[in-house]
Amino acid sequence: MFAITGATGQLGRLVIDALTRTIAPDRIVAAVRTPSKAADLAARGVVVREADYDRLETLAAAFAGVEKLLLISSSEIGRRIAQHQAAIDAARAAGVGFVAYTSVLRAPTSQLGLAEEHRRTEAALGASGLAHALLRNGWYAENHLASVPAALAHGAVFGAAGEGRIAGAARADYAEAAAAVLTRDDQAGAVWDLAGAPSWTLADFAAELSRQTGRTIPYRDLSEADYAAALLQAGLPEPVARLLADSDAAAAKGALDGSGDDLRRLIGRASTPLADSVAQALKG
Q1: pLDDT tens across 125-157, in order?
Q2: pLDDT reading at 26 higher than 90
């Protein structure tokens, strides 16, 4: 059995889609906090089990009989370490044979503010004795594609990344990579630094958006503080605004750049081009 935590999230659903191309749905466990949100997965034959990080008994039941687990990092920034530790402890107690964890690109040296929780989770996995692989995911292109409606409304792309290059890939690319690792038998100890290629700047992103819309949409570079303030004004929760502004500032220093080699090797193709991702975003 294969289990996916956070299976009703954006990445989790795509991993299940990728897995079901080669694995029978009844061999896949969707481990989710709210099973009612996974009714569509259950209708496809996927096994749905409750898995609440704050209720350890649900984790033990969710991982029963599971051979391989994909631990998708929690969305609750600031609480991830305890939540991930609970999942790791439950996996070890349940006799899970292998865990793959979605970390962050170049986690040991990353300048991203969100990297510390990933580093500590990687350390917890190392201390657990569980066979595991690290999927150090780069930037999701969707993180910036989400700003397309605002860019169209305001006539500009805003950010704080300067000329920093972003080796972004589509979320579906990372999902395929995770499925590939789960379905191989030689991944214990593997470390994959996953990123898209070629990398691009936010000015490149703005230029591609301009090309596809026939409008002139420039990139407006702001300070980290001003970008965070703009995101707050746009209605984003403060932790999210601070995270995105911090990530842009780190990108200006090269934190989001990287090679696409590992991702290409895992999925057997180039990552999704920026132009394709922008076109998809414009379709809504």
Answers
A1: 999 999 999 999 999 999 999 899 999 999 999
A2: yes
Using CA atoms in the order 29, 34, 36, 42, what is the torsion angle rounded to 10 degrees?
Answer: -10
Instruction: Return the sign of the alpha-carbon dihedral for residues 155, 160, 166, 171.
Output: negative
Contact 151, 119 (CB under 8 A): no
Q: Rounded CA gap, 174 and 12, in Å?
A: 10
Cβ proximity of 221 and 159 under 8 Å: yes
Q: Which two tokens stand for residue 208?
A: 């591609």
Question: Burial level of 6, CB count in 10 A (0-12/13-18/19+)?
Answer: buried
Distance set, CA 4 to CA 62, 94, 206 (Å): 10, 15, 35
| Residue 269 CB neighbours (<10 A) | 10
Distance between CA atoms of residues 190 and 181, nearest Å? 9
Buried/exposed code over 19-53 (b: 16+ C-beta within 10 A; e: otherwise): bbeebebeebbbbbbebeebeebeeeebbbbbbbb
User: Domains in the chain, please, with CATH?
Assistant: 2-137 (3.40.50.720), 138-169+194-258+270-284 (3.90.25.10)
Q: Partners of 102 in the beta sheet? A: 135
Taking the CA atoms of the chain, what radius of gyration do you get in angstroms?
Answer: 19
Q: Which residues have CB under 8 Å from 59's CB, separation 6+?
A: 31, 51, 52, 53, 86, 87, 90
Q: Give pTM, 2 decimals.
A: 0.95
Distance CA 141, CA 149 (A): 15
